[in-house]
Amino acid sequence: MKQFFSPADLGDLHKAFQEALEIKNNRYSHVELGRNKTLLLIFFNNSLRTRLSTQKAAMNLGMNVIVLDVNQGAWKLETQRGVIMDGDKSEHLLEAIPVMGCYCDLIGVRSFAQFQNKADDYSEAIINQFIKYSGRPVFSMESATVHPLQAFADYITIEEHKTVERPRVVLTWAPHPKALPQAVPNSFAQWMVAAGYEVVVANPEGYDLDPQFTAGATLTHDQDEALRGAHFVYAKNWSAYDDPNYGKVLSKDMNWTVSAEKMALTDNAFFMHCLPVRRGMIVTDDVIEGPRSLVIPEAANREISATVVIKRMLESL
Ligand code: AN0
Ligand code: CP
After folding, report:
1. How confident is the model at residue 68 (pLDDT cuts 50, 70, 90)?
2. DSSP 269
3. What is the structure's pLDDT at 6?
4. Judging by DSSP bridges, how do beta strands 198-202 and 106-110 pair with one another?
5. Mean pLDDT of 104-126
6. Mutate which of 236, 274, 304, 309 to test ligand 2's pocket (most atoms within 8 Å of Cβ)?
7. What confidence category does residue 83 fall into, taking pLDDT thresholds of 50, 70 and 90?
8. What is the pTM of this model?
9. Is the CB of residue 6 less than 8 Å from the CB of residue 314?
10. In this structure, are residues 138 and 131 in contact, taking their beta carbons and an 8 Å threshold?
11. 278 CA from centroid of ligand 2 (Å)
């Protein structure tokens, strides 16, 4: 595997789940695979889970790991070509990327949508430059439009907890004070459809996601209707995708907060969220702390999804 963005990169998802279970059972079983190999993790944005779980995954595989927080200690990077660099940016991404590629065998990149130019964001302009100019296999650690390590961990978590063959999995928008990317919901919808589940996406008007990611899901603006009969409820905020409001916050409607009353509409559903989560906005304390909350198992499975992905990349070096 040379790159990791979508479920198609993993091939058969059920096989990937079996591989994940084997790794979870013995996470050091491939500790020789990464000997004398180096993983470089580049963060343009903050992270707790991705930073820790991806480092741990690489250590499970015997790799060396270098972590670079681009905005803390590195030179400020220009990302646009053709500009006169007379401002505060000392180095261009087009030199920085091949230099970084010299020091490692694999690269993970976190670079959120910038909400300045939708075409740049949706063409994954930043991470595609890493693919083009680093000479190394590259995986997304949440790039502009996708968060596949999260969606793979969520898929593993649902397979572990489902009690029916084809669960009803509901992705619901919930309110948040700041503009957030569409990457997590895009990938979640895409992976859950690929897994063959009954997928419902519920959001207020104006918050419809890019149809390329929701194809195969049922779309609704009625959260209560979506929640009826749900086996898994996945809450997430995202900003508007449609023009002319791309990247904007259009609503903070607290009627969309996932509460015990909302969960009572479901078929005793599990509650899921990728974290970090804002309590009282996205979800109430009782729901996230309750016995049906899977937020910690999801986070734990980030180590497992990352181990499978890095293992597959090492195998194809
Ligand atoms: C980010 C997002 O919504 O994409 C990261 C989630 C994994 N969340 C925040 O910035 C709060
Ligand atoms: N879920 C997730 O990716 O969290 P971080 O932003 O903390 O890495």
Report:
1. very high
2. P
3. 97
4. unpaired
5. 97
6. 274
7. very high
8. 0.98
9. no
10. yes
11. 13
Query: Of all protein residues, whose CA lies closest to atom 5 belonging to ligand 1?
Result: 276
Rounded distance from Cα 81 to ligand 2 centre (Å): 30
Is the separation of the CB atoms in 203 and 242 below 8 Å? no
| Degrees to nearest 5, angle at CA 54 with 24 and 107 | 130
Q: What is the pLDDT of residue 73?
A: 86
Distance of CA 151 to CAs 24, 55, 111, 180, 185, Å? 17, 18, 17, 17, 9
What is the pLDDT, as a whole number, of residue 135? 95
CA dist list (Å): 74 to 4, 14, 29, 34, 103: 26, 41, 35, 27, 15
Written as six digits, the tokens of 72 are 């803390």
Q: Report how far ligand 1's centroid is from the alpha carbon of 28 (Å).
A: 30
Q: Do 231 and 294 touch, CB atoms closer than 8 A?
A: no
pLDDT over 90 percentage in the chain: 98
